[in-house]
N-acetylglucosaminylphosphatidylinositol deacetylase
Amino acid sequence: SGDYYNQGEIRKKELEQSCCVLGIPASDVTVIDHRDLPDNPAVEWDTQLLATLVLKHIEARNINLVVTFDAGGVSGHANHVSLHTAVRYSVCTLPWVPPWAAAGSAWCWWCRVLVLESVNLFRKYISFLDVLISCLLPRDALFILTEEETEQAKRAMRCHRSQLLWFRRLYLLFSRYLVVNSLRLL
């Protein structure tokens, strides 16, 4: 729930506001508030527990595409890395089959997973200039935001007022992730 600084309730409301800016209805937002999954940049979450929760959500919502962090977690945040590990574990290990699937198939055959590429510090903060680099490098998907989409993403980020520390303000100004995102299939 984002309760690292005892701001869980505030951060839930900020998430809903941010999603509203992005056109995501509150009914499509799920916040998992689990005591064994604390918001803490130094805590690695239990892979099996998180994988089970993710798979339950995928099944309940009939989701066919998951976008998550790569093994670097974009910022190295242990919770982000744990999410990648859990999704990778569930794709490669857990024998979950949707009820309508043919025998022998697995959920990863009908639910694709894209991981957001972590880039070095230089590339992370060169904003639109990274479009040139990203176009030249191998990837499975590349999303280049329009100017309007970039402004919408910035408005959505600004909804997270409790998290807008000085370095996140720099992120709003210079991050390539608000302009270009390269992803790979898991």
In short: Confidence is low (pLDDT under 50) at residues 102-107.
